[in-house]
Amino acid sequence: MADAALRLQGLFEQLLGAPLPVRIRAWDGSQAGPPGAPTLVVRHRRALRRLLFKPGELGLARAWVAGDLDVEGDLYTALDLLAGLIWERGEDARTLTEALRDPEVRAAVRGLVKLAGWPLPPAPPREEVRRARGHLHTKRSDRRAISHHYDVGNDFYELVLGPSMVYSCAYWTAPESEGGTLEAAQRDKLELVSRKLDLRPGQRLLDVGCGWGSMAIHAAREHGVSVVGVTLSQEQAAYARKRVADEGLTDRVEIRVQDYRDVADGPYDAVSSIGMAEHVGAERYLEYAGDLFKLLKPGGRLLNHQIARRPQRDESAYSVDEFIDSYVFPDGELAPIGTTVTQLERAGFEVRDVESIREHYALTLRRWVANLESGWARAVQLTSPGRARVWRLYMAASALSFERNRIGVNQVLAVKTPDRGESGMPLRARTWN
C-alpha cells in the first residue's frame, strides 16, 4: 500500500510538535495534508537520509539542492508556512539534544530511519562549499568566498539581475504596479547614493566591492567624478572593464582586482560600499571601517549600504545561517545596525544619517526570482540544476525575511569630520530626497 506521505506527515508532526501546514507527496505517489496548500514533494527517500544525517537547515538545503525535495504551488507561501516551524523557532526553542529526551521524538526519529532506508549518508551536492582549514576573512579566504558566489558566469547574472547588473537592493520610487521597473529602481538607487555622497565633477570616488561596475559608471557618467572600483572577482572585473570601455569612460574609471585592504592611493573625496560589508565579518569590521576612514580626505563621505539582522538577547549565541554559509555567501556575517554604527564611530566617523530601505529589498528580490523562473531552462544551462535551485530558494526566502522584518537593509552616511567640526553637511537632513 502506498502510504509513505501519511507516515511522513505523522512523523514530521511528532518531531515538530505542531500540525504540518503543507501537503506532502512522497516518492510512492501517496499524498497527505491539508487540501489546497502548497505541496512538499519528497522525490526520493534519500531526502530523509540527508535530514537524519544533518538535522535542520543543512539537511533540508542538501535535499533541496540535490532535487530530492521540491515544492509545488507557490514557493513563497510554502516557505512562509514552514518558516515558523523549521527556521524561526526562536531563541527559546529546544535543541536537538533536548528534543531527543522526549520518548515521542525518539520514536519519530526511529520511524524516519526505518522509512529512509540505508545507507547513511548521501554525499553533499557538488554546489556545497568545500572548506579549507584556516582563519576566516584572511585575504586568501575572502578571495575564495567571493569567487564561489560571483564567478558562476556573467551570463547567469545578466539573466537574474537584468540590464542594470546591480546586485543589491534597488530603490523603488514607484512600484511595478504603478509602472516602475527594476532597471529604473536600480538607477534611482545609484543616484540616491551619489546624492548622499554629494558627488561633484573632479572628485575621486572609491567604490568598494564594485561588482559589474554599475555604480562606477553611473558616478563617472552622471556626476563627472573619477572612480576606482575594486573587486575580488576576476569575472566581475572583466565584465566591468568592458562596460566602462563601451561607455567611453576609460579615462575616468579604473576597475581593479584588489582587496580593499590593499588600496593605498588615497585620499578619496568619497567612498561607496554597496552590499559588500556583509562579507567583512565581525572580527574584521573595525579594521574595514578604519581602512576606509584613512582613505578619505577630511570632510569626505562614506555611504555604507549593508544588510542587518535583528539583535539577539545573547549576541555570543549568534551563528551564521547554514544554508547561506554552505551554498550562497561562504563566511558572510550579518550584524545589527546598532553594531555597525558603533564600529563606524569607533573608527573615527561621524554618522550623520541612517535610512532603512527594508521593503525595497523585498520588491527587488521578488523581481530577481521572477527573472530566474522565467528563464529557468537557460539558468540551468548556464550553471547547473543545483545552482539554479540554490539561487531560487535563497532569493525567495530572503524576500520573505525582509517582508517580515527578520532582516533589514540600511544606508549609513558617515563623514570623516575634521577636528574643527565642520562636517560639510547641510543643516536640513535628507536634502537628497
TrEMBL record:
CDD domains (alphabetical): AdoMet_MTases
Top-level division of the source organism's lineage: Bacteria
Any one GO MF annotation of this record: methyltransferase activity
Coiled-coil region(s): none
Range of residues in the leader sequence: none
Keywords in alphabetical order: Lipid metabolism, Methyltransferase, S-adenosyl-L-methionine, Transferase
GO biological process entries: methylation
E.C. designation(s): 2.1.1.-
UniProt keyword Lipid metabolism, yes or no: yes
Similarity remark: Belongs to the CFA/CMAS family.
Name used for this protein in its record: Class I SAM-dependent methyltransferase
Native species: Streptomyces viridiviolaceus
Lineage of origin: Bacteria, Bacillati, Actinomycetota, Actinomycetes, Kitasatosporales
